[in-house]
Write a structure and sequence with these properties.
Elements lengths: L1 E2 L6 E3 L2 H13 L5 H17 L5 E6 L3 H15 L3 E6 L8 H13 L2 E2 L11 E5 L12 H12 L3 E5 L32 E6 L11 H5 L1 E5 L13 E3 L19 E6 L3 H4 L4 H13 L4 E6 L15 E2 L11 E4 L8 H10 L2 E4 L1 H8 L2 H12 L3 E4 L3 H8 L3 H6 L1 H12 L2 E4 L5 E3 L6 E2 L12 H14 L4 H17 L9 H7 L4
Parallel strand pairs: 3-4, 3-6, 4-5, 6-7, 7-8, 8-9, 10-19, 11-12, 11-14, 12-13, 14-15, 15-16, 16-17
Antiparallel strand pairs: 1-9, 2-10, 17-18, 18-19
Helix pairs in contact: 2-3, 3-4, 8-15, 8-17, 9-11, 10-12, 15-16, 15-17
Length: 503
């Protein structure tokens, strides 16, 4: 068993593949072995998470996830703990493995209760209701009642395999399961959450609502390994590879980045120069050798006093063919006046913010973007869900409903690297397995942090590594900076851009 941390990459498997792996392993083992291993793993983690628990309440569903919970209850009861089980199953109609675990729990003397016992903060409750066994259709009221009690409990909550109601493939809750104010009282305490993923890691635990739902994720492979022919649906990103700098190198060794954006105040009375400056500062602090800024319109800015290393340039003077270009940060409507040239001439292009919106609203720009790959030019798109929805001609809700698929659609449609931002940022490229990022937190939900990321991506790319790697490593470092941010210090995009120390 291992706790999943951002210190190494991990393969992620969707539900269909996980079920095939389970069937393959079960066929090679004596009957009931996998459930016995799963129950033992749950019991071991339960003891580790709540060593001083007086009472452990296990809510068990009617299927095999409930069987895992019953098996764990038997082990915990035999260890002398006060274990109470609420089981929604029926021994006459449940799966064979679950029936055997119910019999084992009964023989051990595990107490079956209709209502949960009183729990304190030192106690533990275990969600063994559904796991990946979600089925379409209305949610039974008894199950919803148990969920409400699980969410409202002050005790630590351990979910078996997947938090009930969360789709393992997407990280979205099934309708009726989301723990909103309708199911969780406003006064409910905030208890620690853990999830023990069995056999495989599921992508939904790391994106969309999954990170909040799952809490700390653990993995027990139940002493099995996926068959070689079963490929992961995604990878959980690991830390960047260090890029040592030879003593004989110089500023030109690490690439030139230009940020094209920052619509001036005069254009529409809404100046956005700061966005371009943030991206440029982030590129500089992320290791780019030289950073240029081309502000759109007559901004009158001649120098960034706080960062005088940034070199301002008129757009007409830019050798776009020789630069790593970031286009769109604070570009407003004015970005449309230069976008055709940017798309035509830039060898390496990071397209962000208003650059993305301009492409989404123009068939000509979309065609030009698609043509870049045919000319050997590479593009990285960095949309948030609404920008991705505009590019795909759909809604942000539909993008969020299956983030992995949406990122892959973007990458395929525009022959580019797509960075779909959000909780569990997804990086996808045509013909490759996508990556899910494990770092970052809600402190990044602040104006300008996306501009900072665009600059980081460009700097990493300009250093000479391939675009997908540059994107995944920049996203990881961006989130890690937020994770390591001092607790009592506000995180702003400006401070973030100037604090970066890229490996």
């Amino acid at each position: 068993m291992q706790c999943i941390t951002p210190h190494r990459p991990y393969p992620l498997f969707d539900t269909a593949t996980t079920q095939r792996i389970e069937r393959h392993a079960a066929a090679a083992l004596p009957a009931h072995t996998l459930m016995q291993r799963a129950g033992l793993a749950v019991a071991q983690l339960a003891r580790a998470l709540a060593p001083h628990a007086r009472t452990i309440w296990i809510a068990c569903g009617p299927g095999n996830n409930g069987g895992d919970g019953l098996e764990a209850a038997m082990h915990l009861h035999r260890q002398g703990l006060d274990v109470a089980v609420t089981w929604l199953g029926d021994p006459e109609h449940c799966p064979a493995d679950a029936r055997q675990s119910w019999q084992r729990a009964q023989q051990a003397g595990v107490a079956l209760v209709k209502h949960p016992p009183a729990l304190g903060p030192q106690d533990l409750c275990i969600d063994a209701l559904l796991g990946i066994g979600l089925r379409p259709g209305p949610v039974p009221e008894p199950l919803l009642a148990l969920l409400q009690q699980l969410y409202a409990s002050p005790a630590t909550l351990l979910a078996v395999d997947v938090p009930t109601g969360l789709q393992a493939d997407t990280g979205q809750y099934v309708a009726g399961f989301f723990p909103s104010a309708a199911t969780v009282p406003q006064h409910a305490p905030s208890a620690a959450r853990h999830t023990l993923s069995l056999l495989t890691l599921k992508p939904g635990l790391f994106t969309a609502a999954g990170r909040d739902a799952a809490g700390t994720v653990w993995l027990d492979d139940l002493l099995t390994a996926p068959p070689a022919h079963e490929a992961p649906c995604a990878w959980l990103t690991g830390p960047p590879h260090p890029l040592p700098r030879p003593h004989a190198s110089h500023k030109g060794s690490y690439g030139d980045v230009v940020v094209v954006g920052g619509e001036g105040l005069h254009a529409r009375g809404m100046g956005m120069v700061g966005a371009a400056i943030l991206a440029a500062r982030a590129a500089l602090h992320s290791g780019a050798g030289r950073v240029l800024v081309s502000l759109l319109g007559n901004t009158q800015l001649q120098l960034d006093i706080q960062q005088p290393e940034l070199m301002l340039r008129e757009f007409a003077a830019l050798p776009l063919e020789q630069l790593t270009v970031v286009c769109g940060c604070g570009g407003g409507e004015t970005v449309r006046t230069v976008l055709a040239q940017v798309l035509e001439r830039s060898a390496r292009l990071v397209l962000d913010a208003d650059g993305l919106n301009a492409v989404a609203s123009s068939g000509a720009f979309q065609q030009s973007l698609q043509m870049r790959a045919q000319r050997g030019q590479t593009t990285i798109l960095t949309p948030h869900p609404l920008e991705a929805a505009r590019l795909l001609g759909t809604s942000a809700a539909q993008v969020q409903a299956h983030r992995l698929m949406a990122a892959q659609q973007l990458a395929q449609r525009f022959a580019c690297v797509a960075v779909l931002k959000g909780s569990g940022t997804v990086v996808a490229a045509p013909g490759t397995t996508p990556w899910l990022n494990p770092t970052g937190n809600a402190r990044l939900a602040a104006a300008g942090t996306g501009d900072v990321l665009a600059g980081m991506v460009a700097a990493r790319w300009a250093s000479g590594i391939h675009a997908p790697q540059a994107a995944t490593e920049a996203v990881f470092a961006h989130g890690l900076a937020a994770d390591q941010w001092p607790a009592n210090t506000p995180l702003t995009a400006g401070l973030l851009a100037q604090s970066l120390l890229f490996p």
